[in-house]
Amino acid sequence: MSNRLSFESLSITYGHGASLFTAVENVDLTLEAGEVLGLVGESGSGKSTIARAAVGLAEPSAGRIMLGETEISHARGDQLRERRRVQMIFQDPQSCFNPRRTIGQSIDEALISAHRREGTSAPQARARRDEIANLLRAVALPPETAQRMPAQLSGGQRQRVAVARAISAKPAVILADEITSALDVSVQGSVLNLLKELQRELGFSMLFISHNLAVVRLVCDRVAVMRSGSLVEVGDTLDVMHQPQHEYTKELIAAVPSL
Ligand SMILES: Nc1ncnc2c1ncn2[C@@H]1O[C@H](COP(=O)(O)OP(=O)(O)OP(=O)(O)O)[C@@H](O)[C@H]1O
């Protein structure tokens, strides 16, 4: 089982006929096993669309997405199971939880479907409760959080739960889409540190989408720069930050004087 995710000649369009719009055009990008790859670029450049395509929320019009040797674009059957090894965490954690289910129930659902995917029977309720408590501890939340409703948590706590739920699926890849931008600055750092620690410990690969170049510099091994649906530059984070090759990357970096 591979943690390598590659987008091959990927194009994605929205709409039809006269309103056809190409959001992603002929993108070749590989997230190597175990690396954190930043994806940056102006608003509307197609970053989220690429990530959404990897989890089946956007349909490629051309090209394909591979997890290791398995194609996960247009996934069916076994491929669909494989695609669930790619987990996405969104900007707004509120919208990803059923408001009428406790945090424990939400994580439990993810655990059960992970077992279904692996073809193993889920452990008994009691063992799953222990696993939920361990997952909550892993994201530095008290196990009692399981009894609470999503609305009773702060944004930072909800985002930690979203991380716990994502790792409960034993992911090969995590797609993190602006996961700290809705959070108060004071808690952004702790959520990022947590994710980075878990990434080192569990070895998943991560696509880290962000507008914040300072954060990208701290978190990412490599960075890819998008503009108007196309990839303009990919390289080691420090190389791209210190010696950007493309004019557009130079402009992006110049706009953040602290870099
Ligand atoms: N469901 C949709 N239907 C039509 N157009 C869409 C849809 N989703 C996104 N788009 C358009 O596709 C383009 C790329 O959007 P996308 O969300 O991928 O950009 P982004 O780089 O992630 O932007 P941001 O940084 O603002 O999140 C935008 O022009 C957007 O308006």
UniProtKB/TrEMBL annotation:
<dbReference type="GO" id="GO:0016887">
    <property type="term" value="F:ATP hydrolysis activity"/>
</dbReference>
<dbReference type="InterPro" id="IPR050319">
    <property type="entry name" value="ABC_transp_ATP-bind"/>
</dbReference>
<dbReference type="InterPro" id="IPR003593">
    <property type="entry name" value="AAA+_ATPase"/>
</dbReference>
<keyword id="KW-0547">Nucleotide-binding</keyword>
<dbReference type="InterPro" id="IPR017871">
    <property type="entry name" value="ABC_transporter-like_CS"/>
</dbReference>
<feature type="domain" description="ABC transporter">
    <location>
        <begin position="5"/>
        <end position="253"/>
    </location>
</feature>
<protein>
    <submittedName>
        <fullName>ABC transporter ATP-binding protein</fullName>
    </submittedName>
</protein>
<keyword id="KW-0067">ATP-binding</keyword>
<dbReference type="GO" id="GO:0055085">
    <property type="term" value="P:transmembrane transport"/>
</dbReference>
<dbReference type="InterPro" id="IPR027417">
    <property type="entry name" value="P-loop_NTPase"/>
</dbReference>
<keyword id="KW-0813">Transport</keyword>
<dbReference type="GO" id="GO:0005524">
    <property type="term" value="F:ATP binding"/>
</dbReference>
<comment type="similarity">
    <text>Belongs to the ABC transporter superfamily.</text>
</comment>
<dbReference type="Pfam" id="PF00005">
    <property type="entry name" value="ABC_tran"/>
</dbReference>
<dbReference type="InterPro" id="IPR003439">
    <property type="entry name" value="ABC_transporter-like_ATP-bd"/>
</dbReference>
